[in-house]
């Protein structure tokens, strides 16, 4: 004989019930017990309706109507008309009793546990009856059997304890004698010795099936649900979770105890001793293998088999100087909780002589606090022990696996993964069986914690980076194109899954938790909501994705001022915007420190030399113990363009105009021609070499006449260039006569930086610099005479985008 159990979703509607029938008929020669849950969602509706009634809220009648409608519509759809009337009359008579019970609660204004169990039992009683009638009408040799006649419990309504002796006898007798093939039974419900309905706890239909399976020595217990087995983590929260093919009873028990709802925790107990295999299968995909649960497995060679979590946890701590050396405090503490029927989900290792800390359900907090404070009233009054400290809104995450005990370093890996993702750990516990390690964390961090742990322990290879891109203009759009192009390569070769979750330009912003499709992001953003920097940040923060990266492709001061908010939430920042690193020194320091403190890289490689690896090289030199003595560099693509094209055959005005038109300068060309842009870049290099420097301390040997610098419109600026053409021609001739070229050079030495136009003689490293190329010479202790040289294209949207990309990959490898 075999036992099958179908959960709420599996029997939620006629379409699903038809699927159930075909599954049940798969083994026509074997006797079977088919245990069913209430139609999906009905248990909750019943409980809410009862509560409304007891609160004297008349809307309970709506709940009742909904319950009636759901059941009657299933009958009307599944059963032939000629059979409907008898079934409808039985169902209606049950619904009448239910109505009377609810009216009773309404009048008395109170719910007793006994009444609650009576009311909620109708969910399973109705579903099982209707399903059995449907089976019969389809010619299946089926019969309805009320589980309350088989399963006997004590009086602990809501979660009654089974009297196995009587129950086993009842089940054995009944199934032995029955000549039918299929027996449909309500899950969850039982009765006590007074004949009153009791229930086995939420999710208890699994348990009903296991009790029957053990009683009749079934060949197998099949749990049919809405997922294809027990997964490495809850598949609703972790998309990458995978079905575990084979798992041991103990592992399954541990996972379900820590929240894997797919199996109600007590379910394993009855079948474990008899070694009846359990298989978890998907009603909606019956061909999937599912998960087999048996005695021993070799763990598939794996240490961690699954990650689960239990929400709504509170930590209760008792501490105080009077606890040291006084025996029996823990005993009194645990006894107090136990007498009040409060179950302790977790005891932390932090329990030491002067502090005890336990995890309990949020629902029990009030009672537990009152009880413990009362029990230690004497000590609290004398200040020997402090009143109980309560922390709420917590969740336990647990790693589970039989083989974990023989492996060191798992907890270290677990905690460093959580730490790296800024998940604060409130308490830690390791099960005595060493089959689990659990951590108590904030409720709001659950999704991130599960996904990062899953990535660490099950996806070993693929790391997901979640990008939030602000600025999708020139550079930003190139960047998105590059990601799209490289996505497959990065996944396959670098094991990086890069997704853009949010993006914004100055008008609109959009978010897609599954990743924005980069093939038509322009249309997506055009249909987005109104851009708002504060809301953008708030959204990134509430999404709370692991490995989040904020990418700033703007040149906005306001955006740069938001970086601390991102870093403080462990969101990395990658930027080509120079403002943050070249403004106030304290702000730059603060950003560097926040990055360190919150484990969130702050990278800005493109601030100097676009895609050239200048800052990264500098960092590596310093990290390896080298010291920078001098930096010499040509860092302005725009000024290079201007001086490479300027001669006595053209005017300075025309060349600058051309540079502006071809996009080599900022829209306001004075930013480049005044040397400010170069000052910012040498400032950043000086700071990155370990110097405290501000922009005002940099000497700027400006070559533009004061008048040109002080113009306040582009028009006036260009007019002043025409006026001073003679001066520019003189600069050119003087260089040419010396066989030199004009280059705008930045230099840093002995703590001082300066920028200015220089005549560079033939043979110098700078002489042959083409187009908009940049060059940097690092003179260091290790490179005293022959500097380390980095040279190449130092401007342009494409190379800047690729520099940002490189920073993202650095974070991926972090
Ligand atoms: P049923 O109504 O069939 O008893 P449940 O809702 O009680 O179904 O249990 C199935 C649900 O358990 C899944 O839909 C899934 O959301 C949840 N779940 C939590 N953890 C896990 C896990 N590790 N593996 C599979 N499912 C899980
Ligand atoms: N219907 C009950 C519940 O929702 C029992 C079950 O489905 O297992 O808790
Ligand atoms: Mg369930």
Note the overall shape.
Answer: elongated
What's the total count of β strands?
30
Proportion in β-strands:
15-25%
The CATH homologous superfamily of the largest domain: Acetylglutamate kinase-like
Report on the structure:
By secondary structure, this protein is α/β, with parallel strands linked by helices. It has 4 domains: 2-226, Carbamate kinase (3-Layer(aba) Sandwich), CATH 3.40.1160; 306-458, VC0802-like (2-Layer Sandwich); 463-586, Rossmann fold (3-Layer(aba) Sandwich); 614-795, Dihydrodipicolinate Reductase, domain 2, CATH 3.30.360. The chain contains 30 helices and 30 strands. The strands form 5 sheets. An 8-stranded mixed beta sheet has the order 3-5-2-1-8-10-11-9, sandwiched between helices. Helix 24 (652-661) runs antiparallel to helix 28. The site of adenosine-5'-diphosphate (ADP) has 20 residues, from strand 12.
Short description:
This protein is α/β, with parallel strands linked by helices.
Question: Topology, pairings included?
Answer:
Blueprint: E1 2-6, H1 14-24, E2 32-36, H2 42-54, H3 60-78, H4 81-108, H5 113-137, E3 142-144, E4 152-153, H6 164-177, E5 182-186, E6 189-192, E7 197-199, H7 205-215, E8 220-225, E9 246-248, H8 249-257, H9 268-272, E10 278-282, E11 291-294, E12 306-319, H10 329-339, E13 344-347, E14 355-361, H11 365-375, H12 377-381, E15 389-400, H13 410-420, E16 425-430, E17 436-442, H14 446-457, E18 463-470, H15 474-493, E19 496-504, E20 508-511, H16 521-526, E21 529-530, H17 533-543, E22 548-552, H18 557-561, H19 563-568, E23 572-575, H20 579-582, H21 585-597, E24 602-603, H22 614-623, E25 628-634, H23 637-645, H24 652-661, H25 670-673, H26 676-688, E26 699-701, H27 706-709, H28 714-723, H29 725-737, E27 740-749, E28 752-761, E29 773-780, E30 788-793, H30 797-812
Parallel strand pairs: 1-2, 1-8, 2-5, 3-5, 4-6, 8-10, 9-11, 18-19, 18-22, 22-23, 23-24, 26-28
Antiparallel strand pairs: 6-7, 10-11, 12-14, 12-15, 13-14, 15-17, 16-17, 19-20, 20-21, 25-27, 25-29, 27-28, 29-30
Helix pairs in contact: 2-3, 2-4, 2-5, 3-4, 3-5, 4-5, 6-7, 10-11, 13-14, 15-30, 23-24, 24-28
The chain binds adenosine-5'-diphosphate (ADP), aspartic acid (ASP) and magnesium ion.
